[in-house]
C-alpha cells in the first residue's frame, strides 16, 4: 500500500513536469514547443514524457498488468503518438485541414494542462491497490 502511494506521488510530479513543459496559450503553441524537442532529436521528444516511462517501470517492477493499468498505458501511448502525428501534419507535411487549423488556434485554459496530473495518478493508485 505504501508503495502504491509513493508511486502515485512520483507520477504526480512527473505529470506536473510534463504540464509545465507543454503549457502554452493554444494547441499550436504546444505543438511548436514539442516540435522544438522533436527537431533536436526524437529521443529528446520521448524523454520529456517521464510519466510514460515511470508507468512502464512500475509495470515491470510490480508485475501488475490489470485492466486499469492497460487502460493507463493505452492513454499515455495514444497521447504521445497523437502528438507526433499532429507535429508531422502541421510542421513537416504542412497539410492541415481547415477544421484542424481552426482547432489549433483555440485558446486553452490553463487547467487543461493539469488534466494529466489529475487523471493519471488516481488511475495508477487504483490499479496498484
Give a quick precis of the structure.
With 129 residues, this protein is mostly helical. The protein is 78% helix and 0% strand.
Fraction in helix: over 70%
Instruction: State the total count of DSSP E strands.
Output: 0
Portion in strands: under 5%
Q: What is the residue-averaged pLDDT?
A: 92
Q: What structural category do the secondary elements indicate?
A: mainly alpha
Rg, Cα atoms, Å: 16 Å
How many helices? Answer: 7
| Main sheet properties | none
Order of helices and strands: HHHHHHH
Please tell me what the overall shape is: elongated
* End-to-end C-alpha gap: 7 Å
Low-confidence stretches: none
Describe the fold and architecture.
The chain starts with a helix and ends with a helix. It has helices spanning 2-22, 27-40, 42-47, 50-62, 67-92, 98-104, 115-128. The protein is built from 7 helices and no strands. Helix 1 (2-22) runs antiparallel to helix 7 and helix 4 packs antiparallel against helix 5 (67-92). With 129 residues, it is an all-alpha fold.
Amino acid at each position: 500500500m505504501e508503495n502504491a502511494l509513493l508511486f502515485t506521488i512520483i507520477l504526480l510530479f512527473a505529470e506536473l513536469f510534463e504540464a509545465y513543459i507543454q503549457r502554452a496559450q493554444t494547441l499550436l503553441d504546444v505543438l511548436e514547443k514539442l516540435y522544438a524537442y522533436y527537431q533536436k532529436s526524437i529521443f529528446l521528444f520521448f524523454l520529456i514524457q517521464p510519466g510514460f516511462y515511470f508507468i512502464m517501470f512500475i509495470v515491470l517492477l510490480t508485475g501488475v498488468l490489470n485492466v486499469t493499468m492497460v487502460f493507463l498505458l493505452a492513454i499515455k501511448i495514444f497521447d504521445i503518438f497523437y502528438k507526433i502525428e499532429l507535429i508531422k501534419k502541421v510542421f513537416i507535411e504542412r497539410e492541415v485541414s481547415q477544421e484542424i487549423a481552426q482547432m489549433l488556434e483555440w485558446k486553452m485554459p490553463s487547467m487543461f494542462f493539469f488534466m494529466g496530473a489529475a487523471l493519471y495518478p488516481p488511475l495508477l493508485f487504483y490499479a496498484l491497490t
